[in-house]
Amino acid sequence: MASPGEASVDETHVGKKKKLPARYWQELQEEERKDENKVKSDGEQSKEALRQEEDKTQKAKKRKQDQSPSDGEKVKPEKSDPFPGPAPIPEDRLQKFKRKDKLKKPHRKQHKLRDIIARSEDASEMAQKQAARFDLLLPEEAGFLEGDEDEDTCMISQEDIAEAVDITSGAKYFNLKLSQFGPYRLDYSKTGRHLLLGGRRGHVACIDWASKQLMCEINVMESVNDVKWLHTEAMYAVAQKKWLYIYDSNGIELHCIRKFNDVLRMQFLPYHFLLATASATSFLQYLDVSVGKEVAAICTKTGRLDVMCQNPHNAIIHLGHANGTVTLWSPNQKEALVKMLCHQGGVRSVAVDKTGTYMVTSGMDKKLKVYDVRTFKPLKSYFLPAGAACLSLSQRGLLSAATGDVVQVYKDVCSMPVTKPYMAHRLRGTVWGLHFCPFEDVLGVGHGDGFTSMLVPGAGEPNFDGLDANPYRSAKQRQEWEVKALMEKIQPDLISLDPTELAQVDQATWEQRHQDRVEVLGFDPLAKEKFVPKYKKKGRSSAGAIERRKKQVAHEEQRDVIRKSVEDKMKMEKERKERERKKAALSTQKSALDRFKK
Amino acid sequence: MQPGGPGIPQCNARSPSLFTINTWLVCSLLANIFVAIIFPFCKRVPLRYQMKVKVIARNPDDYVRETKLDIQRVPRNYDPSLHPFEVSREYTRALNATKLERVFAKPFVASLDGHRDGVNCMAKHAKSLSTLLSGSCDGELKVWNLSKHECVRTLQAHEGFVRGMVVRYCGTSFFTVGDDKTIKQWKMESPGYGEEEEPINTILGKTVYTGLDHHQNDPVFATCGQQVDIWDEQRSSPIRSFTWGVDSFSSVHFNPVETELLASCASDRSIVLYDMRESTPLKKVIMTMRSNTLSWNPMEAYYFTCANEDYNLYTYDMRYLAKPIMVHMDHVSAVLDVDYAPTGKEFVSASFDKTIRIFAKDGGHSREVYHTKRMQHVICIKWSADNKYILSGSDEMNIRLWKANAAEKLGVLAPREREAANYSQKLKEKFQHHPQIRRIARHRHLPKTIYHQTKELRVMKEARRRKEKNVRKHSKPGSVPVVSEKEKHVVTVVK
């Protein structure tokens, strides 16, 4: 692969254009100049090392070249690679694939450990570089929307965007007018190909929305609170008036789960195969959908639970409550992991971003707040005149907030103060559900008058991973993926606030280690055994004698301690005396200067 | 809820009329020429929307295969944020791999039967991987083809036991010693039709020989019996004899790297080292109990491991005999034979307790134990030269072929298979210290007797330790020194 030279990397493309590309015959002069620049500018170690290497290899050659001008101008410098070494990788791209900070090197005495650590660090560095290099080859780029100068992007209507873009993308803006069965909840499948709609008055439909193919449509003849896809597009869960139901993609009822009643909101944890449900009776329940067992049922004791979201980074469930708190839950603990007071007045909606860094909440106090969920600290607070009823975060960090019948999309809410929305769109009815489509620049909005699919350029991740969620997978690939995913289903007890905890060294306390050892051995190796006096003949094992013998060894340990402390005391006393004696000796000794004393 | 308060910019998708026309007019007035140029474009989109927009639009042709004959396209993106729960998923994979390893751990490959008495010694062929020689207690010697699991040649080598056997480095002939006080050299190829089985060379000795070994690349071999003799192949008397106040030796072994060095195990509980170029032995270490045999590390010239009667194996550094480098415990009866893997990283031991154990060269406990219901006391053991198999000869007349790596798949692996195996191996390594994975990886089923004996030994050891502790507690501080396990078994080193 042709690679840009070292010097060119530091500069932008704009600056570069004016200059001619480096030529090998210019190399000699340039290199010398470069060397001077390098010393000042280069903080990067790899480059430095590279340069040193280069220096080493070319030292002999250089010497020759240095001499050659003095010999005569006619001697041509030798042809050499103008871009030596591997292509440099931008620092920010490397940073993206960084997993861990480097370890402190252990002492030289532990040379084996040192060696192992050095090797593994080399390997991970190589992997990091390879991944960063591969990043260059990704085929797609993210979308964007830029207005004219002094024009707000939020003034651009959906129709205009749909008209401006290509036909297939334009077709992604559409309305479904479904006014009969009331406000709609919706969910996109993990690959983003399939859409599930659940009308308040019982209408459930699943659609392959890109091709607008209806997969099934049923009316459950009951109120529907929420709908959710399970791990594939073959099954979905519907929270109905009383129980939780699971249907397949043909609309056939597979299960009615009576253990889950009055469910209001659901979240599916795809890597754990857990369906988390929040109910009107304040129960948070987890259903393992791979084996059909209830994993945990937690009574949160906080009233009706109608605000729920998951942290996709660590599979923690966030619940919003009427008293303004947001609580964090895992299936392993009966108590909330964290309780945060976020709003004065009830919490209306919660959303957590893909990386698990930011949490966005909106409350009855008409505020929109951004929190850092790693430190639980507030970052930003915005005032929305009407308050946001629904929130959703896209894969690339766009926030959509629904206020009444208007959907607003904000950009960079978490990092910088925002005054204007990025996009806005008014709908026919009140918004009921809001969801960004994964891997597409599409925002699905369920409202009183049906469903609207909006175009939001820059929302979706442009490059998907074929082994994780492939929108174009075939049936065979899906089956393969399903088996693999089931094989590596993460057990619910591994859910914790820090998902990388498992890879960290557990520096257990001595007590803990000792306890483990006892468990392994089946006995306590350090336990003090109870003294059992030997049986002795000739009447020496009478009850009194036994007691006397027991008394001899009783409190042996305590005696040891006392003996030791007494010894220490004696020693200190002795030292003190010694010191005093010396002091006294010194004071009695006459010095030559004493005669000047009065 | 009040939508569209003062803070919210109103977006009226349906009413662009007035503002649009205004802008339109201004623009057209300001720059007539410019408008003329972009006029065709403006017709399609009103000028107001001179916006730049791009949305993700994938061409499905780039993501699905063209024909059914192609393989599926799998675009990758290694961005860590697209792969959450990295660690937990890897852990789950490692756990699955560990479980599968235990499921597939079927080490027994084949049993070679045909001997009419216990197998007393075995020898690997120097050049051919599939050839094995074995000698039994009735003096019979068999040559085996391992790939076909069959005996290709049988000969009556000695009267009484075949005590030792070694293949010459060129692989064309082999030597045997027996209880009939003879050393015989045989041709490797079987005699032609009508010819008799006859040794090339026979040396009649004065005493019984108990073992022999051949030099790596010289026509010199060594025997042991009442003394250690060095023989030239061309002569009928030893060129050198070593004695050091010992009446008998049980085995002698040449160092495969430093080829002039030898080591032998003597019946006075000592291990004696020799240099062939010198006339006297180098040094010896006397242990608390007798060593049966020893094996040199083929990669690190100065390490050897001896199989001891006290159920342990000891790895010594030849230069510092005062303390073994490592004590390998786990057997519950005398260890009878030991052989190193050609990589020098592991060795296998055969024991009187009817089991075979595999130890890492620097591991105190075995990583693997092999046993079967029918296998009796294992007398001799060999690790094959391709590092894949282990051969054991036991009392009940059978030679058994085992896999060195119990869960390994035999045969040629497809590239993807090999990759998957490597990946799971790495994962197992990464998570090996996690308690659940370690528990599964370490679990081995043991015969009842061995299980109970192990427990008993542990209790005894614990009792001894406790007693020592008590003695130390009740005596003058410093008068009862702490002796480490390594130091315990060495009596003295003599130079």
Q: Could you explain the architecture of this structure?
A:
- Among the domains of chain A are: 153-486, YVTN repeat-like/Quinoprotein amine dehydrogenase (Methylamine Dehydrogenase, Chain H), CATH 2.130.10; 506-557, no CATH class.
- With 598 residues, chain A is α+β, with helices and mostly antiparallel strands.
- In chain A, 33% of the residues are buried.
- Chain A starts with 5 loop residues before the first helix and ends in a 10-residue tail after the last helix.
- The longest helix of chain A is centred in the C-terminal third of the chain and has 33 residues, at 556-588.
- Chain B is α+β, with helices and mostly antiparallel strands.
- Chain B is globular, with a radius of gyration of 37 Å.
- At the A-B interface, α6, β1, α7, β26 and α9 of A face β1 and α3 of B.
How is this structure best summarized?
Chain B: It is found in: Nucleus, Nucleolus. Chain A is an alpha+beta fold and 598 residues long. Chain A is built from 12 helices and 29 strands.
Descriptive key words:
heterodimer, A: alpha+beta, Methylamine Dehydrogenase, Chain H, 4-stranded antiparallel beta sheet, 27% helix, 27% strand, disordered N terminus, B: 495 residues, alpha+beta, 5-stranded antiparallel beta sheet, 30 strands, 20% helix, globular, WDR46/Utp7 (chain A), WD40_rpt (chain A), WD repeat (chain A), WD40/YVTN_repeat-like_dom_sf (chain A)
